[in-house]
Amino acid sequence: MATNEVKAEASRHQNVRHDGINETDNVRHEGVNATDNVRHEGVNATDNVRHHGVNETDNVRHHGVNETDNVRHGGVNETENVNHDGVNETDNVRHDWVNETDNVRHHGVNETDNVRHDGVNETDNVRHDGVNETENVNHDGVNETDNVRHDWVNETDNVRYDGINETDNVRLDGVNETDNVRHDGVNETDNVHHDGVNETDNVHHDGVNQTDNVRHDFINETDNVRHDWVNETENVNHDGVNETDNVRHDWVNETDNVRYDGINETDNVRHDWVNETDNVRHDGVNETDNVRHDWINETDNVRHDGVNEMAIIELLSLP
User: Fold this and answer.
1) Nearest CA to 97 among 185, 4, 157, 222?
2) Torsion angle, CA of 58/159/186/259, rounded to 10 degrees?
3) How would you class 286 by CB atoms within 10 Å of its CB: exposed for 0-12, middle for 13-18, buried for 19 or more?
4) Contact 232/112 with Cβ under 8 angstroms?
5) In this structure, how many other beta carbons lie within 10 angstroms of the beta carbon of residue 25?
6) Is pLDDT at 194 greater than 50 in this prediction?
7) Which of 5, 167, 227, 277 makes the best surface tag, with the fewest CB within 10 Å?
8) Given 3-state DSSP classes, what are the helix, strand and coil percentages for the chain, each rounded to the nearest 5?
9) CB-based contacts of 8: which residues, under 8 Å, 6+ apart?
10) b vs e for 101-132, b when ≥16 Cβ sit within 10 Å of the residue's Cβ?
11) What is d(CA 32, CA 198) in angstroms, rounded to the nearest whole number?
12) Could you tell me if 195 and 66 are in contact, meaning their C-beta atoms sit under 8 angstroms apart?
């Protein structure tokens, strides 16, 4: 296109977070048209909304599943105020892939009574991800309507689902569950959220032995830390990489208050599968400077998902 058109396009995209589709005015999107201070991930959305894969409306934040307690860990032993995924944990802990009990969040197993599930039939005040569900549900990935978060399934009316048919304000993750329960891959009971590990008493775990209000995701971690597949320490969220000190990472080596997803990054940055630097969140592309991207080369306070784009600075500097 002509230089003026390129600059105009750059101006339209400045200070905007995009994820793979046309979007407008201070909006964060991930894969669909969205409008006005909205964060989207894969579907048309409107008015201060964050979506992940489905049409949604009216001040809604959507993701797909799994988050709880002051700390999230990914795959390692952790302790004190930590969220775990995939290991035995105890006392106010979130687990993933293990049997747990009493105020626990589960992922992938039968659970009961005030539990969040992901991937199974559940009933009554349950959050689901991946199946047809109804009434007050959060969905990600399917046609949905009215303040709803969906995950890969047709759903209706303020409901979030994760992989199974569910009913009435229920979120499920991989298991049959009942009555205000969220589960993720494990048998659980009584207000419990689990993620693949045996746990007990208000615990959310994700793949690791943990203790006392801890959430973990397949990594050794310590003290108010969320981790995912990486060794980390103290108030850190990691996903797949060695990291340290108030950092959330996803599959990359990173350091100092950084969240990464798939790439080496540094300093208060969240990344997803791309090399990036300085307060930037990326998803699938090389980017720089306070930018969140998803699968595209971009630059300067812009988040994109699924489209080739150029740095605003480069566009505006064209002759």
Assistant:
1) 185
2) -10
3) middle
4) no
5) 12
6) no
7) 5
8) 5, 40, 55
9) none
10) bbbbbbbbbbbbbbbbbbbbbbbbbbbbbbbb
11) 39
12) yes
Q: What is the DSSP letter of 311?
A: -
Contact 122, 183 (CB under 8 A): yes
How many other C-beta atoms are found inside a 10 Å radius of the C-beta of residue 62?
28
Instruction: Please answer whether residues 309 and 283 qualify as being in contact, where contact means their C-beta atoms are separated by less than 8 angstroms.
Output: no
d(CA 226, CA 76): 10
* Residues facing residue 89 across a β-bridge: 199, 210
Q: Is 32 exposed, middle or buried (0-12, 13-18, 19+ CB in 10 A)?
A: buried
Q: Between the CA atoms of 47, 52, 54 and 59, what dihedral angle is there, to the nearest 10 degrees? A: -20
Q: Contact, 304 vs 313, CB < 8 A? A: no
Q: Which is nearest to 170 in space by CA: 108, 103, 125?
A: 125
Q: What is the pLDDT of residues 281-298, one digit of tens each?
A: 334 444 333 333 343 333
- Rounded CA separation 186/74 (Å): 16
What percent of the chain is modeled with pLDDT above 90? 0
Task: Summarize pLDDT for 302-319 with one digit per residue, the tens.
Answer: 344 444 444 444 454 555
What is the residue extent of each domain of the chain?
Answer: 71-218
For β-strands 254-255 and 265-266, DSSP reports them as parallel
pLDDT for 2: 57
Backbone torsions φ then ψ of 315, nearest 5 degrees: -65, -45
Of all helices (H) and strands (E), which one includes residue 315? helix 312-316
pTM score > 0.85 for this model?
A: no
Q: Report the 10 Å Cβ neighbour count for 58.
A: 13
